[in-house]
Amino acid sequence: MPTATLALTVTGGVLALFGTYWDESWHSYVGRDSFFSPPHLALYAGVVVALAGVGWWALAVRRVAGWGGVLQNRPLLAAAAGGATTLVAGPIDEAWHALFGRDAVLWSPPHMLGVIGMIALAAGVLAGGSRTRHHRGWSLALGVGLLGAALVPVMEYEADVPQFAALWYVPALVGGAVFTFGLVERALPGRWVVTQIAAAYTLLRIAILGTLTVQGFAAAFVPPLLVPAVVFDRARGWRPGPRATALVASLLVAYAPAMNVGYRGLRLGPLEVIVGGALAILLAWVFLARTGRTTAARPSSRAGTVVLSLVVLAALAPTAALAHDPGQGDPVVPVSLRAEVSTDEVEVRGTLARPNCGTLEPVATVARRAGRTHTGPLTAGDGCVFEGSVPLDEPGRWFVYLEFTDSEGEVLEAWLPVTPAETASLQPATEQKDVWAYHPAGAEVRRATQAISGVLLYSIAALLLGYAIRTPFGPEPARDRPGDG
Predict the structure, then answer these.
(1) Nearest-angstrom CA–CA distance, 288 and 22
(2) What pTM did the predictor assign?
């Protein structure tokens, strides 16, 4: 493998990861905007750079072993398939939003297809680089990129725009972390290698946080992943069950106080710690037993499949968007929104541009967050001013919508994000945003079409992930030379 392949893959991966977190903040404050928004351009530019590194690798293999060698190189094929899948997922996602409107956002089929494509790309290049020891430094950096891609599925939890119940945060987090830890341990021999990668990943996330904060965006919570990484390394050689239990316990000990005290969004209560922790232990046990270097008794393939299927199906059961990314359609009329936010209520005033406002009838004020929806009144005032209020019953970021109908009875909406004050003694916070009222996209498409399309995309993603997991890691086994006894 050329060193340039690792350098390009690491550079592209960092750029893509930054674009991903930037895009999350962009969606929360600006909305879906254009497919060619700055975060999207950064994300897909990173994918192109990483894929260029894979192409360089393919040319190097072809020079030595011909196209037959390229087609027999499983790590190379996994990386190429992953990068191509992520690029294709972009247009698929654009079409998905245009057809179906609101969806489960980050866990929607097109998004997960793109995320798993990046995981496969990073895993393939890591597997290829692990066969040559002089690439160890670059391989460590690539392990950081793999960890970043594997933890993207929990980004909305850590960015305070959760789409699903908090119960699923710990299992999803542990699944991504253990997947990466296990592959890195197979690819890079030596002690404390996972700790090194977790430390570098933490520094990278801090850098992303600082960059987005300077731009005026609220960045995601930086996870205290170093503690469980140290425990994982320290428990090297343990049986899968005890090792999985120690990993999840250390993660909960580190995460629960950090999120409950230093983070205004997601809270890990008794249900999330006990039930979510138990699911996470099962998930970690399956991953460690099937991918780790162990001689202990392993769970049967049937048991592992059942555990993984139950967790995935339960987590993905909700298919409608629960707060974020309103699936904006065609803009109709400009709206200036102003919200006064207390601890338990938001009062919103929307001033619509003339003369369009005269044809709109107020419907309701709606607040959404992580599956919770509250509705309040919306009334027309003097001129083109509409006023409404709605209760808020938990901390963290809410998305507040003003809903109207036009002269033809079609629904329009406009939205802004708000965050309740922490205590009643604080003055109500003021949020302002100039937006467009729009027709929600995809209102006329049947759910059956969306379900069938989603199953197909999830299946492709699962096959790609399975292929990446089965890619051989570590130095190639020695082959007998002619004449050897």
Answers:
(1) 32
(2) 0.84
